[in-house]
Amino acid sequence: MQYMLLIYGDEKAWNDMSEDEIKATMQAYGEYSKELAASGAMRGGSELAPVSTATTVRVRNGKALTTDGPFAETKEQLGGYYLIEVANLDEAIKWAAKIPSAAFGSIEIRPQIET
User: Fold this and answer.
1) Which of 13, 24, 50, 67 has its CA 20 to 30 A from that of 74?
2) CA-to-CA distance for 79 and 48, rounded, in angstroms?
């Protein structure tokens, strides 16, 4: 079964981190990504650009309307994701718990609809 591991955190918290803390976190992500790939479970993943670069699209009365930024103000923003394929939710939870940002943000696990 495929699961999307959605990584949420407070983008502003990165501004408060020292250069060494950022470097250590990025190194931890590199190690996690290598471990996930080596396990054969990784199907994809990416860091996302800051929420300030987002564009939201809504269609109303047949017309596409766009606005800059996210739809809603939230304490945590979607910062990246991993797409994994594992046997069950328990395995997905184990991988989600290893994501470095789980220590100070949150990881949402969403199963993919199988067609």
Assistant:
1) 24
2) 5
pTM (2 d.p.): 0.87
Strand segments (E) across 11-113:
42-47, 55-60, 63-68, 77-85, 106-111
The pLDDT of residue 47 is above 90: yes
Closest-CA residue to 104 (of 5, 3, 12, 23): 12
- Would you say residue 82 lies in a domain? yes
- Asked if residue 61 belongs to a domain, the reply is no
Strand partners, 64: 59
Domain tally for the chain?
Answer: 1
Q: Is 104 helix (H, G, I), strand (E, B) or coil?
A: coil
